Amino acid sequence: MKKIELQKSFVYGPIHSRRLGVSLGVNLLPTDHKVCSFNCVYCQYGFTKEQVIDPSAATSFPDKKMIVDELNSTLLHSVECGQKFDYITFAGNGEPTLYPFFAQLVDEAIALRNTHMPSAGLALLSNSSCSQLHEQPVLEAVRKFDMKIFKLDAGDSDLFAKINQPHPGIQFDRVIALLRSLDRLIIQTLFIDGAVSNCTDKAVESLIICYKIIRPQSVQIYSLDREPADMRLKKVLPARLEQIKNKILKEIPSLPVEVYT
Ligand code: SF4
């Protein structure tokens, strides 16, 4: 598995992915370190050194104008070159909703998208930590995304603590309640084995209970693709992912489940 470097700019890619097609990435976080409310054992960027749930506790965030200018010039240049994106995707070096001007930036990104490339969707990859989602403007901004992909790797608080190692201010039950309150949600679950495992029958059954509560639009399951922070982790083989998919479908036949290998 390859190691991946932090994104070195505010706009990056495009990345070609099965989930998002041709996706232009937007990074609202510093370019020299990760800022996140989680410290996932499988994180492709290594362990989290700056773990916050309150943006005011973070050392720094990029200037909003710099991000908007970079997005504007990239979209303009892409249109001139005939390059189209399926999605403009908020992801980057940590949890995007921690950005202190998240709501304003989403509105500016939507305006730029409408001006330069109205066919592109707006996608958000979030860890579901909901640390800022109790703020009404942030929640309203999240609802504006065309595709909302939220993380859920564990179906109980013990495994949640072991896999995602959330900031102590984040409670599992609140995460589930928040996910339940959002419409048209895509849940992504990364399965791991080894030092920590969420691919046992028991762990999958707990996840299925959560899927039933959240009622997402679909579920995406996959395993390690990049070098994890904890090198003792193992990739879950495609055959096991297919078994997990079938187990989910047996319990929730109407739920679209996609396996990415
Ligand atoms: S939520 Fe994402 S960026 Fe944050 S630690 Fe987990 S995998 Fe890394």
Write the layout of secondary structure elements.
Elements: E1 11-17, E2 21-27, E3 35-36, E4 50-51, H1 64-81, E5 87-91, H2 102-116, E6 121-126, H3 136-143, E7 147-151, H4 157-164, H5 172-181, E8 185-194, H6 201-214, E9 218-223, E10 233-235, H7 238-251, E11 257-260
Helix pairs in contact: 1-2, 2-3, 6-7
This protein binds iron/sulfur cluster (SF4).
Iron/sulfur cluster (SF4) is lined by residues 34, 36, 38-40, 43, 45, 48, 94-95, 127.
Give the tags.
single chain; alpha/beta; TIM Barrel; 7 helices; 11 strands; globular; binds iron/sulfur cluster
How would you concisely characterize the structure shown here?
The protein has one domain (11-260): TIM Barrel.
| Distinct ligands | iron/sulfur cluster
Low-confidence stretches: none
What name is given to the CATH topology? TIM Barrel
Which architecture would the CATH scheme give at its second level?
A: Alpha-Beta Barrel
Overall number of domains = 1
Please write the CATH class name.
Alpha Beta
Helical amount: 25-40%
Evaluate the radius of gyration.
18 Å
Q: Strand-residue fraction?
A: 15-25%
| Number of discrete helical segments | 7
- Please write the string of helix (H) and strand (E) elements: EEEEHEHEHEHHEHEEHE
The overall pLDDT average reads 95
> What would you give as the CATH superfamily?
Aldolase class I
How many strands, what sense, and barrel or not for the largest sheet? 9 strands, mixed
| Alpha-beta classification | alpha/beta
Overall geometry = globular
Distance between the termini: 13 Å
Number of strands: 11
